[in-house]
Write a structure and sequence with these properties.
Elements lengths: L1 H4 L19 H21 L10 H4 L2 H8 L6 H24 L5 H15 L3
């Protein structure tokens, strides 16, 4: 068995490569202060600076802006048609429970009327 292992490569240990990072608290504090001052100056000028990892500035006003862009529907005819459909379906269910199958024939009268209302504008 030892003869076969002579022809194969023996596994080696994994090497650990450690590159130390040096921390300089003075340099770090100076960099934070510079960034804070730059952002204050840009805010005063009205400029918006976006860093690659800064997603908050992109999200900040997007919901309010989208709400201002979208206009609420004030079309009362759509509301009335919706109300009429719901009322009809409620009456149809009550009629089916009361009279049974003949009440379903009302549905065959309602479907063409609904399509007429839906497609008459186009």
């Amino acid at each position: 068995m030892k003869i076969l292992s002579l022809f194969t490569k023996a596994p080696q240990h994994q090497r650990f490569r450690y590159n130390p990072r040096f921390y300089d608290p003075v340099k770090e504090e100076l960099k934070e202060r510079e960034d804070r001052i730059k952002s204050e100056l840009e805010r005063e000028r009205g400029e918006v600076r976006q860093e690659p990892g800064d997603y908050r500035s992109r999200i900040a006003g997007s919901f309010q802006a989208a709400r201002k862009r979208s206009k609420p529907t004030t079309d009362t005819s759509a509301t009335l048609i919706r109300l009429g459909i719901l009322l009809f379906l409620t009456v149809l269910i009550v009629a089916y429970l009361e009279w049974g199958r003949p009440a379903l024939y009302l549905l065959f009268l309602f479907v063409p009327f609904y399509f007429y209302l839906k497609f008459k504008r186009k």
